[in-house]
Amino acid sequence: MVFDDFDYRRRLRKHPLLSQFSSTLPSNIKELFQWMEFIVANNPIAAAGIKKLSEVPVTTLRYSSGDDVTEGSFSDHDSWKTILEDDLNIKATLLNISYNTHLYGNCFVSVYAPIVRLIVCEECGHRHNIRNAKKLKIFLGKKDVSASTEEEFHDKATGDYSKVYKKSSDDTKKVRAKAVCPQCRMIRVHHFKDVPVRKKDDINIVIWNPNNIRISGNPFSGEEEIYYDIPADLKKAIKENDPFVLSTTPIAIIESSLSNKVFKFAKGSIFHMKKESISGVSTSWGLPALTSAIPSILTLMVLRKANEKIASDYMVPLRVIFPSQQSNPSEMFNYMGGSDFVSKIKRMIEQWKIDPSGVQMTPFPVGTETILGDGKLLTLNAEIEQLEANIANSLGIPIEFIKGGLSYTSQGSSLRLLENQLAKITAGLDDVLGFIVNKVGAILNKEPVSIKLIPFKIIDDLQEKAAIMQLAASGQGIISKATILEMFNIDSNAEQDRAKEEQKMGVKAQMELQNYQQEVATSLEERAKQKEQMNTGSFEMLNQQALMQEAQNYASQLAQMDPGMRKSKLDEMAKTNYIMYGVVKALLEMQDRKQAYAATQGAAQGGQSPQ
After folding, report:
1. 3-state DSSP of 219-238
2. Is the pTM of this model over 0.90?
3. Count of CA atoms in the C-beta half-sphere (13 A) of 157
4. pLDDT, tens digit (0-9, with 9 covering 90-100), for 311-357
5. Beta-carbon neighbour count of residue 149 at 10 Å?
6. Rounded-to-integer distance, Cα 565 and Cα 582, Å
7. What stretches of 372-530 adopt beta strand conformation (E)?
């Protein structure tokens, strides 16, 4: 198969209905990509539309309840939620993927597995990090040593690797390096050895530049072969033996650079997310969202340029002062010449600026004329607004979605169409997310889980929500609590954790109260026994239940008082009945903690309630 060139300008023919911009339209997909980059850099409406379309469908991540999310082969902090959201910042990555998909119509994603790249001496077998190599020079050559018996050993303290290898024959041309061997202490030929590193912080999700991508597609099977045109600056760094580039660039790309060939991605190593395409033009490439808006954008640029000219030439009025037509020119010039008249007028204007209330005099009548200054009537704002609306329509969104002020009641049908359009992007992002999870799981030797975005909703269907809530209230177990929470964009796992914490806090508070009651009762019994032993009189055993009942009554009365009055009553009680004072104070503190916790939960629930 040949590479798909996406050349549609050859289909155009001169026609009287075509605009003057038809000859400037992009001729292939790569030119179209460059046009998209130029447009978003110079057209604020197009840039804002693409940005908002990209952000809206990226919702909250939903982890399947049956999978190991918080516990597994790693500890809790190494869970999938932590890996994706904290270490890989997956939300920002999905936003970037969505943005590139809308902008270019295509997005190519792969996952970079971290490695430590070593070079192995083919004479003594000594291994060392390529970044520490001296007099490094790479080339394509034949391998003289087999790596099948290499032992995986990494001394983290020194970063060195030492092993002797058995020699064997291999005629395949692979990338080799000439460098000083630390053990031989002379320049030797080395071959490359990559040691995988299972470190989640070094995993990188690569979003490839579509300008450097080629696609060879089979229209019958639908299969694609994706190629990468290695950029000139990367080729230059490789051929100049840059240790930093050579230590992280995949071996296959290095070999393609040295042989001046395009790099072919292995099947399943790269994910191609694309928008809809026209079967008569290309099925391998998706079309950018702004493709149909290019003529309107070009016309808009012309109108803005005209507005710029109007603003510079017609906004500031030009005032002209001249002798009035009522005066007799022959008599006027008897008093002063033309140059004297101009000088006189200039002096009058300067004096007027110093003293605006002053009176200026001339020996003859003077007239004034204002020209230009009517630029506000000439501006093309109405035409520009219409073209901006056309650009928004080409994106499939109302202009209010970009500028704000979108009405949820009067624009219900438009919002429903927009919701259906963006729901497809959310589904595509789910596929990308599954690809990333599988690749990261393979790198970290961790079992993949099912992770998806919560279904995108731009407007609330109140009738549907009411029906679901009614089914949930029936108690038949048809609707789960997780489904109810997801309707309001609430993380069910987080809510379960909060419910557990609330129960723990309640149990802890109850235990503290019981312990304090026990301490008070024990103290009272001990004092009673001491008084009985000292024969100070008969001591009637205190009734604990009566004591707690009286203390609760006091606490209820004091809770209704202002803080100053409450403190005064407590101080008085401490002097007369210290035991009762301790119990009442503990009950008041317990009530304050419960009220503070209830207020915190009410504020949190109010902040999460749907609008």
Report:
1. CCCCCEEEEECCCHHHHHHH
2. no
3. 0
4. 888 888 888 887 776 666 666 666 666 777 788 888 888 888 888 88
5. 11
6. 17
7. 451-453
